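ok so i was messing around last nite and threw this chain in just to see what happens. nothing serious, just curious
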Amino acid sequence: MADETNSPRAPSAVVTVGDMQDYLAIDGDDDILKSLIEYAEEDARGSIDSAIEIEIYRKLPIFNQAVRTLVDFNYYNRGALSGQQIAYPKSYQYMLNKIRWKVVGTNG
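result:
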C-alpha cells in the first residue's frame, strides 16, 4: 500500500490556506480561511486539552482533518450559523473524541 503522505495530492501535515483552497475547491478568501483555520485549531485544542501544545495535535492526521471539517462547515455557513440546528458537524465531534483518546492517553 502506498504512503499517501508522499502523494502530490495529499493534504499538508499542517492545515494551510492553500490546503483549504484545494479542499474547498475555491480561489481567494485567504484572510477568511486563515482566520477560520486559526479558530478551528483553537476550538479543537480547547475542546480536548488546551494545555497540550498545538504542535502535538498537528502531528495527528485526524486533528488536521477535524480542522478541515470545521473550516469547511464554518466557511459555507458564514452568516447562517444562527439559524443552524447544530453548532458543529457530527463528524467533527466524532474526530474530537478519537483525538481525545490519542492525545490525552499518550500525554496525560
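not much to say yet. The CA atoms of residues 61 and 73 lie 18 Å apart.
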